[in-house]
Amino acid sequence: DSSEDIEDVSLFDADDDVSRRSKKSKIRHPVASFFHLFFRVSAIVVYLLCELLTSSFIACMVTIILLLSCDFWAVKNVTGRLMVGLRWWNQVDDDGRSHWVFEARKVSAQGSKTTSEAESRIFWLGLITCPMIWVIFAFSALFSFKVKWLAVVVMGVVLQGANLYGYIRCKVGSRKNLTSMATNYLGKQFLRQ
């Protein structure tokens, strides 16, 4: 048979590319990745199932706010640093003025990233999707006249929205950089046409 004469050979170092891709997409911090999603998803699940499990609004509210607070702390102080190399905080100087500081990990000397693509996807997917879900819950609570739940939902929007805003500012840079990036992009699009 002619199938015995066929040999698998790597074409243009394809095997090296596959091994490099698998290393890039490997999750380097599985515990951080788990907790990045655990607190966020748990708060949403508790919100959705709370009325089915118990009739105590206070117990549900406290549980949800504790989960949201744990999520805020974990994302701001741990998972952002480990998974994507970004962090932000507020600093008060000697004059009493508040300054927001946004940092991004510098690229290594070889020019390669120290974060994996899989962790980055997990981080940004969780960071963007969950606040959108809380906004949907806010409209739902508002239109269904569940005013007592509106306070809980607003806490979800505020805590997760603050992390989203902080990390977007870390990723993109200051407002001046954002404006110049938009201007440059629109200028390039205009010149192409």
TrEMBL record:
<comment type="similarity">
    <text>Belongs to the TVP23 family.</text>
</comment>
<feature type="transmembrane region" description="Helical">
    <location>
        <begin position="30"/>
        <end position="49"/>
    </location>
</feature>
<feature type="transmembrane region" description="Helical">
    <location>
        <begin position="122"/>
        <end position="143"/>
    </location>
</feature>
<dbReference type="InterPro" id="IPR008564">
    <property type="entry name" value="TVP23-like"/>
</dbReference>
<dbReference type="GO" id="GO:0016192">
    <property type="term" value="P:vesicle-mediated transport"/>
</dbReference>
<dbReference type="GO" id="GO:0009306">
    <property type="term" value="P:protein secretion"/>
</dbReference>
<dbReference type="Pfam" id="PF05832">
    <property type="entry name" value="DUF846"/>
</dbReference>
<keyword id="KW-0472">Membrane</keyword>
<dbReference type="GO" id="GO:0000139">
    <property type="term" value="C:Golgi membrane"/>
</dbReference>
<feature type="transmembrane region" description="Helical">
    <location>
        <begin position="55"/>
        <end position="75"/>
    </location>
</feature>
<keyword id="KW-1133">Transmembrane helix</keyword>
<feature type="transmembrane region" description="Helical">
    <location>
        <begin position="149"/>
        <end position="168"/>
    </location>
</feature>
<protein>
    <recommendedName>
        <fullName>Golgi apparatus membrane protein TVP23 homolog</fullName>
    </recommendedName>
</protein>
<keyword id="KW-0812">Transmembrane</keyword>
